[in-house]
Amino acid sequence: MERIPILKMGEFLLVTIQVDMHDRLALTLQDDLTSQIVKFGAHGVLIDISALEIVDSFIGRMLASIASMAHLLDAETVVVGMQPAVAITLVELGLPMRGIRTALDVEKGMQALRGAILAGQDDDASGIR
Amino acid sequence: MPTANSKLLQVFEKREDQITEQWVEQQQTTGRKLTAAERDQANRQSREFVRSLKSALQRNSSGDISGPDWANVRDFLVDLSSRRAKDGYSPRETASFVFSLKQPLFSALKSDLGADTKAVADEIWFATLLIDELGLLTTEAFQKSREEVITRQQKELLELSTPVVRLWENILALPLIGTLDSARTQVVMQNLLEAIVQTRSDYAIIDITGVPVVDTLVAQHLLKTVAAARLMGADCLISGIRPQIAQTIIHLGVDLSEVTTKATLADAFDVALRRSGHKIVRQETASTNAAAR
User: Are residues B142 and B189 both part of a single domain?
Assistant: First the structure.
């Protein structure tokens, strides 16, 4: 069965989507990713969609739900590498993907994740106090 | 349509030179003063036109100019009027090129068939129909090429009016000038997103100082652009909001609270610099010290 590989990079997980997503693949990815987050105690997930020419409402919703699931497991999600045409289409479709962090490429995504995790730790610390 | 119009063809064959002479003269007396080069060109065009008109009449003299026999004449007129449209002739001047053929043609008909008034009337009616048809064709072609010019200019204007400027590393500015409609928003969005990818920028400042009116539609277009830039990982700031526009936006109930807005481009630039970790410090030099004193 085809699977989308999930790479571990330090405390982050890197997912590169390079094939057309369909329902089964998306569900497998959700399964794999959530179990990997728990297994490695990852604090950040980076989803690279630079190879996707088409992002429809299904994939948009899937990305949003992955982000919420990861958040429940205490991991921040950043979607990186969206094509300009894809961004325009999503906005025109009325799917501006509000709850999702975005970045231009993997490098900037890493930076954003580090910043977000630092801020999150500060919040946690202040919560205890 | 009377098919017995061989007379018109006969007259043409017999008096081609005379008609052309008179016609050229006619063209020069009506309308504005032409330069020598223009007169020369008009002369050449007239001769060529009379020649192709004659040969078309020889092939098909039914008065129907839509057939393949008249293709030469049609092509000639379309070419002539589109060239005149580009050279800045007025529609009147272009149309009168064809219509001024009437007088020499009618006088030639009259002098040939003078005795038979009924024949003269019939022939003149036929010639009138023919020339009107040709004149309409000319005007139509003229209009069409003018429209082409307008479309091309609109396109150029669209491209010209949406520059993306790099203010600093990671900071882009997009000064918008003129009304934002959906077609322009598309171009603006595309340019901005491509520039974000190219320069790997984190901040984009959309300056709307040059946008005369911001209504709900324009605001929606702005928000779309902001959302698209956000999807690419860039933060958008809107600057250049004039007091009048701030009032309109609030009266219309447009919600811009998700976007950072500033009154001037300078303020927005300052915010972008600070968010990206830059700091502007005035350097102490002799001249600033002197000014302070």
Answer: no
Contacts of A97 in chain B (CB under 8 A): 231
Residues from chain B contacting residue A80 (CB–CB below 8 Å): 233
Please judge whether B193 and A87 are an interchain contact, meaning their C-beta atoms are less than 8 angstroms apart. yes
Is the entire prediction scored with pTM above 0.80?
no
Q: How many A-B residue pairs are in contact by the CB < 8 A criterion?
A: 54
Q: Which two tokens stand for residue B130?
A: 């023919």
Does residue B22 form part of some domain? Answer: yes
Range of the domain at B201: 165-275
Q: Which residue in A80, A88, A112 is closest to B189 by CB distance?
A: A88
Mean pLDDT of the residues in chain B:
84
- Is there a single domain that holds both residue B17 and residue B125? yes
B186 and B126: one domain? Answer: no
Domain presence at residue B287: no
Residue A5, min C-alpha distance to chain B (Å): 23
Regarding whether B137 and B10 lie in a shared domain, the answer is: yes
Contact B180, B221 (CB under 8 A): yes
Q: CA separation (Å) from B123 to A46, A90, B101, B109, B281?
A: 85, 68, 14, 8, 91
**Domain presence at residue B286:** no
Q: How many domains does chain B have?
A: 2
- Tell me which chain A residues have a C-beta less than 8 angstroms from the C-beta of B195: none
At A63, give phi and psi (nearest 5°): -60, -40
The residue in chain A having the minimum alpha-carbon distance to the alpha carbon of residue B233 is A103
- On whether ipTM exceeds 0.90, the answer is no
Shared-domain flag, residues B25 and B145: yes
What token pair was written down for B32? 């504005």
Each residue's pLDDT tens digit, A24-52 = 888 899 999 999 999 999 999 999 999 98
Whether B233 sits inside 8 A of A112 (CB atoms) is yes
Closest B-chain CA to A81? B232
CB of B190 within 8 Å of a chain A CB? The answer is yes
**Residues B127 and B179 occupy one common structural domain:** no
Neighbouring C-beta atoms of residue A121, cutoff 10 Å: 11
Q: Which structure tokens are listed for A39?
A: 């297994």
Taking an 8 Å cut-off on Cβ atoms, the answer to whether A97 and B228 are in contact is: no
CATH topology of domain A6-128: Transcription Regulator spoIIAA (3.30.750)
Whether B188 and B143 map to the same domain: the answer is: no
